[in-house]
Amino acid sequence: MNLQLSELINCDNIDKIQIRGIDGMLYQAIAFLRHGDTVEQKLIYHGDKPYLSRSLLAVKEDFEWVNAAQYVLVTDTAYDEMIGLGSEKPLSTLEQPLHWK
After folding, report:
1. CA pair distance 64, 14, nearest whole angstrom
2. Cα 57 from chain centre
3. In this structure, what are the phi and psi dihedrals at residue 2, rounded to the nearest 5 degrees?
4. pTM over 0.85
C-alpha cells in the first residue's frame, strides 16, 4: 500500500515514520499507521515515484510538518559478515530514534 507525502498532513494516526537508509546516502520513507490494535505499513510516494532523498537533513525538512509519534532511522549493517559469520543470513538491522519533534 502506498501513501502520498502530501497526504501525511491529514493523518492523525501516524505511529512511526521509518527513514530507511537503502544505499549509502539514499533514504526512503515508510509510514506506520495505527488503526485500533493493528498497524498498517505504507510506502511513502512523492508523485508517481517512491519518496527518495540523498540527504537526511532534506528528509527532516520534508517531514517537519508531519505529526508522527516517532521517527526512526533504519540501516542494514554488514557486521555479521565482517566478523566472519558469513553472508548466508540477512544483514543485521540497526534502528535509531530520531528526535526531530
Report:
1. 14
2. 14
3. -120, 155
4. no
Backbone region of residue 24 per phi and psi (left: phi > 0; alpha: psi in -120 to 50; beta: other values): left
**For the chain, how many helices (H) and strands (E)?**
2, 8
- Residue 98 bridge partners (DSSP): 71
Set of cell numbers at residue 79: 557486521
- 20 phi and psi, to 5 degrees? -105, 120
Q: What is the mean pLDDT of residues 52-56?
A: 96
C-alpha cell at 27: 533514504
Under 8 Å between Cβ of 73 and 36: no
β 27-35/14-21 pair status: antiparallel
Span 59-101, pLDDT tens digits: 999 999 999 999 999 987 666 566 666 556 556 678 899 998 7
Amino acid 40 reads: E
